[in-house]
Amino acid sequence: MKQLSELIKGASSILDKLAAICIFSVMLLIVANIILRTVLSRPILGTYELVGFLTALGVALALAHCAFKDGHIAVSYIIDQFPYKIQSIITVFVHVVSLIFFAAVVWSLGNFGQAMKIKGLVSPSAEIPVYPFIYLIALGLLGLCLVLLFNCLVSIKEVLKNDTAKKVVR
Amino acid sequence: MSVFVIGLIGIAVFFALVIVRMPISYAMALVGFVGFSYLTSVPASLDMVAKEIYNTFTSYSLSVIAMFVWMGFLAYYSGIGTSLYVFAYKMVGHLPGGLAIATQVACAVFGAICGSNTATAATMAAIALPEMDKYKYDKSLSTASIAAGGVLGVMIPPSVIFILYGTSTEQSVGVLFMAGIIPGILLTLLNMGMIYLLTLRNPSLGPAGVKASWSERIHSLRGGLGEALAVFILSVGGLFAGWFTPTEAGAVGAGGVLVVSLLEKRLSWDKLKRSLADTTRTSAMIMLMLAGAVIFGRFMAVSRVPFELASWVGSLPLPPFAIMGMILFIYLILGCFIDALALILLTIPIFFPVVVDTLGYDPIWFGVVVVLVVAMGVITPPVGMNVYIIKGIAPEIPLETIFKGVWPFLGTIILLLVLLMVFPGIATFLPKVFAGV
């Protein structure tokens, strides 16, 4: 389980670093566009859509690491009052349901990307194909699914362990 | 079963999932997906979810969130907060409760650069608490004044909550930023006045410090603080002047703070990486919540809950201000339990049509009022986020001590709320004058 944890942590961390590069690039692109627009009256073609695509990657690729770090906001003070065993069972339920849902979303995004590829949809001004970005968003959500799968395994193990310790892996 | 009832069941299931600790973004998206599937079809719902996630993540107007979040984290890691606090202390530190008053000034100005109440509270707690301990400040006053100061970051632009409100209701983010300025300054002054009154009545709560000379005060502006403030003025000023879109203003702000921090050697490579890691994590959390809210909103629209609610409220034999009061009370209660960002995203699609279309209130004014009400949630028990942040930094101080000190500051927020209800111009004056809204 420790090896799996390291693997998931490593993979989500790599995706997160790529996300950070995308966010950094968004800032550089916008500032460069403002300077070129103001000084040379020659804005960068397709800035508007590139900013959207890069932000999407900056967000999607960071989803897994955010989940790994327990960064998605949840309300825990009510369930914290329940006995440990019930907490663990509910946690398994939450992780399994979340995993099934996001796996369906990944599948649906894959289909959407495929449809856009066949259709040959490109962005309006720079004419960049849209489908690679849809696939990359799906990749980010796939990373989230891996973290959820890992959390599922950990929480199932905790239920089976019948431990009375207070900590519940969320 | 009518579609309206299914909508209500959806809302109940959402709350049930939140109670069992499902992340709010997951719960909104999941309930939205299942409800939409039930009312249309599973393939249509899957298609809707994929498209809405893609559209939300690639939205140019929403990329502003990542930029302002990064600007805040850069300011946090580069230590601009410390300089601000020193400057504010040199200005007002000689007054009774001067350190706590300085905290309000520093929080207000840091909020202008940062935009996150939690980052503001964390920064100020780390800097101001040891100073106030040194001067033997009452623990309740010192901790609560920082927690309350964090709220200023929500009201004073740039504010992530205003961005979310603006994008959810199709209101101009620039105009909302403008509308938050006077209420934000007013709340700062009210908090300062409250601290002054408390310490005047009981000087042992916050003994006065040493008066600084004007040369010391001016000297404290050096070391990048003046430059950082100039970047803020360029960024938000450029937005108000119409030179930049909100996203461009955010990028100019982040880029400007980055350049200033690098030139002043305030930012190491490690801190830069940490600022980016915090930004991606926070942006991912917010954007997934936004996508979840959009999906949930699609389900709500199909179930007609907002429209039925609006027509029911419209038929109530009550004056608009009474209904408005009830809505704000609901926000106040929910704000005690649900995070401010999530609460705005979840409830605005339901209440906005009621308040604006049925009751006829100004959408910008409502934005300011609702943001102020949900911002109260960051200092109210049981989940006051700012209070827990301060507790994390000063674990030896009991939570009850901090919550006890928060009451006077809740009073100042409620006073501002009443002022906003009686004099809506506090929020709408600047947008009217500068944007003609």
Question: Care to give the gist of this entry?
Answer:
The complex is a heterodimer of chains A (170) and B (437). Chain A is mainly alpha-helical. Chain A has helices at 2-40, 47-60, 63-68, 84-119, 131-161.
Could you spell the SSE succession of chain B in H and E letters? Answer: HHHHHHHHHHHHHHHHHHHHH
Provide the helix percentage of chain B.
Answer: over 70%
Oligomeric composition of the shown chains? heterodimer
Count of domain modules of chain A:
1
Radius of gyration of chain A: 20 Å
Q: What characteristic shape of chain A results from the CA principal axes? A: elongated
What is the number of strand segments of chain A?
0
Distance between the termini of chain A: 16 Å
Bin the helical content of chain A.
Answer: over 70%
- Can you count the helices of chain B? 21
Taking the alpha carbons of the first and last residues of chain B, their distance comes to 43 Å
> What integer is the average pLDDT of chain A?
90
How many individual β-strands of chain B?
0
Order of helices and strands of chain A: HHHHH
Overall form of chain B: globular
The SS-based structural class of chain B is mainly alpha
Gyration radius of chain B, rounded: 22 Å
Structural class computed from helices and strand pairing of chain A: mainly alpha
- Major sheet summary line of chain A: none
